[in-house]
Amino acid sequence: MAERRSGSISSRKQPQQARSTELVAAILEAAVQVLAKEGAQRFTTARVADKAGVSVGSLYQYFPNKAAILFRLQSDEWRQTSEMLRDILEDRRDPPPQRLRRLVHAFIQSECDEAEVRGALDDAAPLYRDAPEARAARKAMDGTMAAFLREAAPRSSDAARARAAELISRTIAALGKDFSSRPRTAAEITAYADAVGDMLCAYLKTLRRG
Question: How far is it, in rounded angstroms, from Cα 99 to Cα 105?
Protein backbone atom coordinates (compact mmCIF):
# COMPACT_ATOMS: atom_id res chain seq x y z
CA MET A 1 0.00 0.00 0.00
CA ALA A 2 1.35 3.42 -0.92
CA GLU A 3 2.21 5.74 1.95
CA ARG A 4 -0.33 8.53 2.34
CA ARG A 5 1.14 11.93 1.49
CA SER A 6 0.44 14.85 3.79
CA GLY A 7 2.34 17.89 4.97
CA SER A 8 1.09 17.54 8.53
CA ILE A 9 3.18 16.00 11.28
CA SER A 10 0.70 16.63 14.09
CA SER A 11 -1.68 13.96 15.34
CA ARG A 12 -5.01 14.11 13.51
CA LYS A 13 -7.06 14.02 16.72
CA GLN A 14 -6.60 13.30 20.40
CA PRO A 15 -8.22 10.19 21.90
CA GLN A 16 -11.18 11.07 24.11
CA GLN A 17 -12.32 7.65 25.36
CA ALA A 18 -10.50 4.79 27.05
CA ARG A 19 -10.80 2.57 23.97
CA SER A 20 -9.31 5.30 21.76
CA THR A 21 -6.50 5.89 24.24
CA GLU A 22 -5.71 2.17 24.23
CA LEU A 23 -5.72 2.14 20.42
CA VAL A 24 -3.26 5.03 20.21
CA ALA A 25 -1.05 3.37 22.84
CA ALA A 26 -1.08 0.14 20.81
CA ILE A 27 -0.16 2.03 17.63
CA LEU A 28 2.73 3.80 19.34
CA GLU A 29 4.02 0.59 20.92
CA ALA A 30 3.86 -1.12 17.52
CA ALA A 31 5.65 1.87 15.98
CA VAL A 32 8.52 1.51 18.45
CA GLN A 33 8.87 -2.18 17.58
CA VAL A 34 8.75 -1.57 13.82
CA LEU A 35 11.22 1.30 14.10
CA ALA A 36 13.67 -0.78 16.14
CA LYS A 37 13.44 -3.72 13.73
CA GLU A 38 13.14 -2.02 10.34
CA GLY A 39 14.75 1.38 10.85
CA ALA A 40 13.46 4.71 9.59
CA GLN A 41 13.84 3.88 5.89
CA ARG A 42 11.52 0.85 6.02
CA PHE A 43 9.11 2.35 8.54
CA THR A 44 5.60 2.58 7.05
CA THR A 45 2.08 3.07 8.36
CA ALA A 46 1.11 -0.29 6.86
CA ARG A 47 3.79 -2.11 8.87
CA VAL A 48 2.76 -0.27 12.04
CA ALA A 49 -0.93 -1.04 11.52
CA ASP A 50 -0.15 -4.71 10.88
CA LYS A 51 2.01 -4.93 14.00
CA ALA A 52 -0.67 -3.21 16.10
CA GLY A 53 -3.40 -5.46 14.71
CA VAL A 54 -5.51 -2.57 13.42
CA SER A 55 -6.56 -1.37 9.99
CA VAL A 56 -4.61 1.37 8.24
CA GLY A 57 -7.86 3.37 8.22
CA SER A 58 -8.05 3.20 12.01
CA LEU A 59 -4.45 4.35 12.26
CA TYR A 60 -5.16 7.30 9.95
CA GLN A 61 -7.88 8.50 12.32
CA TYR A 62 -5.09 9.57 14.67
CA PHE A 63 -1.96 9.87 12.52
CA PRO A 64 -2.19 11.24 8.94
CA ASN A 65 1.13 9.75 7.82
CA LYS A 66 4.29 8.05 9.06
CA ALA A 67 5.93 11.40 9.81
CA ALA A 68 3.18 12.12 12.35
CA ILE A 69 3.85 8.81 14.12
CA LEU A 70 7.60 9.38 14.16
CA PHE A 71 7.10 12.93 15.37
CA ARG A 72 4.89 11.70 18.22
CA LEU A 73 7.58 9.22 19.26
CA GLN A 74 10.22 11.93 19.06
CA SER A 75 8.01 14.39 20.98
CA ASP A 76 7.56 11.83 23.75
CA GLU A 77 11.34 11.34 23.85
CA TRP A 78 11.93 15.10 24.01
CA ARG A 79 9.40 15.42 26.83
CA GLN A 80 10.99 12.61 28.83
CA THR A 81 14.49 14.03 28.34
CA SER A 82 13.34 17.54 29.26
CA GLU A 83 11.64 16.26 32.42
CA MET A 84 14.74 14.26 33.38
CA LEU A 85 16.95 17.31 32.84
CA ARG A 86 14.66 19.54 34.90
CA ASP A 87 14.12 17.04 37.73
CA ILE A 88 17.86 16.48 38.20
CA LEU A 89 19.25 19.97 37.64
CA GLU A 90 16.58 21.73 39.73
CA ASP A 91 17.00 19.37 42.71
CA ARG A 92 18.84 21.63 45.14
CA ARG A 93 19.26 18.93 47.74
CA ASP A 94 22.53 18.12 45.95
CA PRO A 95 25.31 20.59 45.07
CA PRO A 96 25.65 21.51 41.37
CA PRO A 97 28.57 19.16 40.60
CA GLN A 98 26.66 16.19 42.01
CA ARG A 99 23.59 17.11 39.97
CA LEU A 100 25.70 17.30 36.82
CA ARG A 101 27.11 13.83 37.53
CA ARG A 102 23.61 12.46 38.08
CA LEU A 103 22.50 13.95 34.77
CA VAL A 104 25.41 12.37 32.91
CA HIS A 105 24.70 8.94 34.39
CA ALA A 106 20.95 9.16 33.74
CA PHE A 107 21.36 10.38 30.17
CA ILE A 108 23.97 7.83 29.13
CA GLN A 109 21.97 5.01 30.71
CA SER A 110 18.89 6.21 28.84
CA GLU A 111 20.80 6.38 25.55
CA CYS A 112 22.00 2.80 25.99
CA ASP A 113 18.56 1.52 27.00
CA GLU A 114 16.87 3.01 23.93
CA ALA A 115 19.73 3.02 21.43
CA GLU A 116 17.93 1.29 18.54
CA VAL A 117 14.87 3.52 18.62
CA ARG A 118 16.81 6.74 19.17
CA GLY A 119 19.16 5.91 16.32
CA ALA A 120 16.23 5.35 13.99
CA LEU A 121 14.58 8.58 15.15
CA ASP A 122 17.80 10.43 14.37
CA ASP A 123 17.65 9.00 10.84
CA ALA A 124 14.08 10.30 10.51
CA ALA A 125 14.92 13.74 11.92
CA PRO A 126 14.68 15.57 8.54
CA LEU A 127 10.92 14.90 8.64
CA TYR A 128 10.40 17.10 11.70
CA ARG A 129 13.69 18.74 12.69
CA ASP A 130 12.49 22.28 11.89
CA ALA A 131 8.95 21.90 13.26
CA PRO A 132 7.84 24.53 15.83
CA GLU A 133 7.49 21.77 18.42
CA ALA A 134 11.11 20.77 17.86
CA ARG A 135 12.31 24.33 18.40
CA ALA A 136 10.16 24.64 21.53
CA ALA A 137 11.61 21.43 22.98
CA ARG A 138 15.17 22.59 22.38
CA LYS A 139 14.38 25.99 23.90
CA ALA A 140 12.94 24.39 27.05
CA MET A 141 16.01 22.20 27.58
CA ASP A 142 18.35 25.12 26.88
CA GLY A 143 16.46 27.18 29.47
CA THR A 144 16.87 24.51 32.14
CA MET A 145 20.61 24.25 31.54
CA ALA A 146 20.98 28.05 31.53
CA ALA A 147 19.18 28.35 34.88
CA PHE A 148 21.38 25.62 36.35
CA LEU A 149 24.56 27.40 35.28
CA ARG A 150 23.38 30.73 36.68
CA GLU A 151 23.12 28.99 40.03
CA ALA A 152 26.29 26.91 39.65
CA ALA A 153 28.55 29.67 38.29
CA PRO A 154 27.12 33.04 39.38
CA ARG A 155 30.44 34.86 38.97
CA SER A 156 30.85 33.89 35.33
CA SER A 157 29.71 36.20 32.56
CA ASP A 158 26.53 35.60 30.60
CA ALA A 159 28.63 34.83 27.53
CA ALA A 160 30.73 32.27 29.40
CA ARG A 161 27.64 30.54 30.81
CA ALA A 162 25.96 30.48 27.39
CA ARG A 163 29.07 28.89 25.90
CA ALA A 164 29.21 26.39 28.77
CA ALA A 165 25.54 25.45 28.35
CA GLU A 166 26.07 24.65 24.69
CA LEU A 167 29.31 22.79 25.34
CA ILE A 168 27.89 20.65 28.15
CA SER A 169 24.67 19.82 26.30
CA ARG A 170 26.40 18.99 23.03
CA THR A 171 29.11 16.96 24.76
CA ILE A 172 26.66 14.80 26.69
CA ALA A 173 24.49 14.25 23.62
CA ALA A 174 27.37 13.43 21.27
CA LEU A 175 29.20 11.15 23.69
CA GLY A 176 25.99 9.38 24.69
CA LYS A 177 25.05 8.75 21.07
CA ASP A 178 28.50 7.44 20.16
CA PHE A 179 28.87 5.28 23.27
CA SER A 180 25.44 3.67 22.83
CA SER A 181 26.11 2.73 19.20
CA ARG A 182 26.90 -0.83 20.33
CA PRO A 183 25.72 -2.94 23.30
CA ARG A 184 27.34 -2.09 26.63
CA THR A 185 27.54 -3.84 29.99
CA ALA A 186 26.38 -2.17 33.19
CA ALA A 187 30.00 -1.88 34.32
CA GLU A 188 31.00 -0.19 31.06
CA ILE A 189 28.13 2.29 31.33
CA THR A 190 29.05 3.21 34.90
CA ALA A 191 32.76 3.60 34.13
CA TYR A 192 32.10 5.72 31.05
CA ALA A 193 29.55 7.94 32.79
CA ASP A 194 31.98 8.42 35.68
CA ALA A 195 34.70 9.54 33.26
CA VAL A 196 32.41 11.96 31.43
CA GLY A 197 31.16 13.28 34.77
CA ASP A 198 34.74 13.85 35.96
CA MET A 199 35.54 15.79 32.80
CA LEU A 200 32.46 18.02 32.92
CA CYS A 201 32.73 18.65 36.66
CA ALA A 202 36.34 19.75 36.20
CA TYR A 203 35.12 22.19 33.54
CA LEU A 204 32.34 23.38 35.85
CA LYS A 205 34.87 23.98 38.62
CA THR A 206 36.90 26.20 36.30
CA LEU A 207 33.77 28.04 35.20
CA ARG A 208 32.71 28.72 38.79
CA ARG A 209 35.90 30.68 39.42
CA GLY A 210 34.52 33.38 37.15
Answer: 10
pLDDT digits (tens, 9 = 90+) for 15-33: 556 678 899 999 999 999 9
DSSP 89-146: HT-TTS-HHHHHHHHHHHHHHHHHHTHHHHHHHHHTGGGTTTSHHHHHHHHHHHHHHH
Give me the domains of the chain, ranges plus CATH numbers.
18-62 (1.10.10.60), 70-209 (1.10.357.10)
Task: Determine the Cα–Cα distance for residues 29 and 44; give it in Å rounded to an integer.
Answer: 14
Q: What pTM was computed for the model?
A: 0.78
The residues, ordered by sequence, that sit 6+ positions from 123 with a Cβ below 8 Å of its Cβ are 39, 40, 41
Residue 8 above 80 pLDDT? no
- Of the candidates 191, 186, 190, 142, which has an alpha carbon nearest to the alpha carbon of residue 167? 142
Residue 159 to residue 144: CA distance in whole angstroms: 16
Closest among 117, 115, 98 to 31, alpha carbons compared:
117
